[in-house]
Amino acid sequence: MFKPLNIMFCFFLFFTVFPVNAEDNFKVFVPEFIPKDASFEISIITSKNFPEAEKLDIYFFPDFSLTINEIELRTDKGEYQISLNSEYLQNYSEISQKVSIDLTDTSIISPESFFEIIVHLKSRNANSNILKFYSEYTIRNEILGHLKISNENFDTDRPDLYRLSFNYFEKFYTAESAARFGQNSFLNIPLEYNFEEDLAAEFWIKFKNYKSTFLEIVDWETNRVEYYLSLNENQMLAVNSRLKNVFQLKPSFISSNCWYHFSIVFDKNKSQLSFLCNDEEFAKLQTNNYLDFNNFLFHFKNSNPSGNFNIDQFRLVKENGSLSGVVKNRNYSSYSDDSSGVFLQINFSETEIENLLGQKLITYGGIKLVKSNAPIFPRAPKVDIKLLNSFFEVDWTGGDYKNADYYVLERAIGSNSFEQVNREEADNSEEKSYSLLSEKPNQSEIFYFRIKQVNKDRSVVYSDIVKVGQGDIEDIILGQNYPNPFNPTTTIKFELLQDTNVEVKVFNLEGKEVALLHNGFLSHGVHQFEFDAKGLSSGIYIYQVKTPFSIKSHKMIFAK
Length: 560
Hints:
mainly beta, Immunoglobulin-like, Jelly Rolls, 4 domains, seven-stranded mixed beta sheet, 40 strands, about 5% helix, flat
């Protein structure tokens, strides 16, 4: 049975701890690290915002490669399946997947309680997807209001229609194996490193149908559990302590089958313990002076017979007062930072665990090593450029040299695309410095260089782009839309020269935004988006592609 305060307390925290718009009446949780072709969930938490409302209708518009498998309603009364029906929504000229929630049924929904809507999704053969949704609170078919949120990342050009973006990652060979915790499995890791200031414990974790405690922090001198982390009945993270002195900063929903990066920071000087998920602090507490962090032991466990979880890449890191080293190294199997270092790292290979068992007092039982699809990627080379009369000398080091097959030096001149100018075979025996020359053409253009590392499994990773010459960095090559003029659809195509966050928008000549085509992360390469001008007047429009480094825009003509 669900505890009545679970949903209410999570939602209450969000609106009391964080300043939000007075009209906001729901919160949506979207996972960040979603494996490609995986099933996953989003959570929408709201309440009966309009007391007289009889129904809440929500209309979902998924991409063609995104499937809604089912919808759950979770309340303080229990958990219920909601039927999903196709319905044409005339105002938006689209077929929707509609769910209706009966707000008058007090056996399911308490009048003043919050409730949670879980949307189960499945992506197929896509690198990214969009899910739009629209809602109506109604009484006798009269619309009283809508779900509203002021977060600009969810807004679209149409009133009360919200857009959620999902980006998926592909498994790399660098994620080899993970530890799967089935029922009654455990892993004990003591913190016996006599650290004097800050220590961060960080790991990747993926849950499947899991609602229970998954980590206890034990004082091994007294054998008492001082703190523990769990997922509650609503898949919300919960942190508790023996003395109940935890300050929960923000609610965090955890989707099944998605990876989450946890950091637990021990600050000796301030006697504080902080908990972060995907680099956001969701709880912190003041510890008792009599507790010695060096006596703590991490006890991962699974006592849930119907669920399991995987852990990959556990580290204990000596920190310097910030988590900068942890953040920039979280997606790499090798750790590289000048201001912090690793006391312990476990990547869960059979050989590694056998060696650790004899050295570090680490014990385990019942866990199974399985293939991992964690977001752990090959490290890219670091590049430096020198000008030698009529040549550029490009030097690079690092990268995932053990698994690299060869390196390609690529160059772009001005706004042109990158082209190969040289190639070097990789030396897998040791990390070394490489150097290649590129002729400098007799022109005063801006040059961009990067190293493409081609790995033995044919996967590719790129270095950062190095610019030579004057002017602001340009990382977008924007083409003209096609067709142009158009009626009513056209395709906007551009190339990104590096991985980055991107906004793709369309404006009218008055500067008013009429469409948001994309807002989020995109990898380097060619991308295209379709713009549909149905419902707009004929005329000239401007499409704009914006990154943190540059903005490019072109005009296009809509002719009915």
